[in-house]
């Protein structure tokens, strides 16, 4: 059962990447209000599923892929908004 958690994590990461790429190309797979909460929640769930899964290459792919999506969904916009766009 533990190895299935890794595959679920990779599937979630792939779905998040597809939604992310389509959103920035102007194609709405889901509504605009749902895109970022969906990607943040999916990435957190993917990291948790990878942590529960068995050790191996699929676990590393799930953790790093979901962390990558989380990085570009939360961390980079927060840094840009704080340090670059700090004046109106």
Structural topology:
Blueprint: H1 2-24, H2 32-52, H3 57-83
Helix pairs in contact: 1-2, 1-3, 2-3
Number of strands: 0
Biggest sheet details? none
Overall shape: it is globular
Give the DSSP E fraction (strand runs of 2 or more residues): under 5%
Please report the number of helical segments: 3
Mean pLDDT: 88
| SSE string, helices as H and strands as E | HHH
Task: Please indicate the count of domains.
Answer: 1
Q: Runs with pLDDT <50, length 5+?
A: none
User: What does the radius of gyration come to?
Assistant: 14 Å
Kindly report how far apart the N and C termini lie.
52 Å
Structural class: mainly alpha
Residues in helices, as a percent range: over 70%
Describe this structure in words.
This protein is 81% helix and 0% strand. The protein is an all-alpha fold. The protein has one domain. Helix 1 runs parallel beside helix 3 (57-83) and helix 2 crosses helix 3. The radius of gyration is 14 Å and the shape is globular.
Structure, briefly:
By secondary structure, this protein is mainly α. It is 81% helix and 0% strand. It has one domain (2-83).
């Amino acid at each position: 059962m533990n190895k299935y958690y890794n595959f679920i994590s990779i599937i979630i990461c792939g779905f998040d990447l597809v939604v992310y790429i389509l959103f920035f190309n102007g194609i709405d797979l889901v509504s605009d209000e749902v895109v970022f909460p969906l990607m943040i929640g999916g990435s957190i769930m993917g990291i948790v599923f990878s942590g529960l899964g068995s050790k191996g290459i699929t676990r590393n792919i799930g953790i790093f892929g979901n962390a990558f999506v989380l990085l570009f969904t939360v961390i980079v916009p927060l840094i840009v908004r704080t340090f670059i766009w700090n004046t109106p």
